[in-house]
Automatic annotation (TrEMBL):
Domain called Peptidase S26: residue spans: 23-90
Chain segments carrying region Disordered: 165-188
UniProt cross-references to InterPro entries, sorted A to Z: Peptidase_S26 (IPR019533), Peptidase_S26B (IPR001733)
GO molecular function, one term: signal peptidase activity
Enzyme Commission designation: 3.4.21.89
Alphabetically ordered keywords of this record: Membrane, Transmembrane, Transmembrane helix
Highest taxon above the source species: Bacteria
NCBIfam families with a match to the protein in the record: sigpep_I_arch
Protein name: Signal peptidase I
Annotated GO CC locations: membrane
Spans traversing the lipid bilayer: 12-37, 142-161
GO biological process: signal peptide processing
Amino acid sequence: MSRPEKPRSRRELLLNVGAILGLVCIVVAIASMLFGITPLVFRSGSMSPDIPTGSLAVARSVDASDIRVGDVVSVDNEVGTRITHRVIAIEPVGDGSVSLTLKGDANRVPDPSPYVVTTADRIITSVPVLGYVAAWLSSKTAIFIGGIIAGALLMLAFGPIRRPSDSTFPTDEPAEDSEPQLQEADHA
C-alpha cells in the first residue's frame, strides 16, 4: 500500500512562486536584448480608443525602410520626449532615413513637425491597464516591498527549518529526570 503524499507546505509554494517570477524576469530581459523589444507605458490618451491611457505596449525596433503608413511607432522628439502615434505619411530623406508624419488617433491634427528617423519602435501589441501595474512596479515603494519579499523568501529558503527546542540549550537548571547533585562547600 502506498503512503499518501504530503500536501505541499506554504514555504515550498512561496519558493516556487518566487522562482517562477524570477524566471519570467530573466526571460523578459533576454527577449528585450535579443529581439530589440521595448515595453512602453501609455501616459496619455492620444492613441485612444485603440490604446487607452494606462496600457502597456510591447514595441520592437525596426529600420526606417520597414515602417509603413498605418503603423503605430514610438520615436523621440527634438527635446527627447518619447512620442507614440500612428504614421500617416512617409517621405524618404536619404542615407536610410525617412521623415515620418505622425498623428495620435484621438488628436484632430497631425503632430506639428515631422520626425526624421533611421529606426523606430513599432508597436506589436498592447494590454489595457497593465501599464499602471508596470509603472507602480518601477516605483520606489514597489522596489522596497519587493526587497522585503525577496529577503523573506531567502529567509524561508535558507533559514532554520525547525525552531530548536528549549532542551537543546544549556541551562543552570537540572534536567527533570536527573538525580540531584551535591555541591561541595568550601570550609575555611
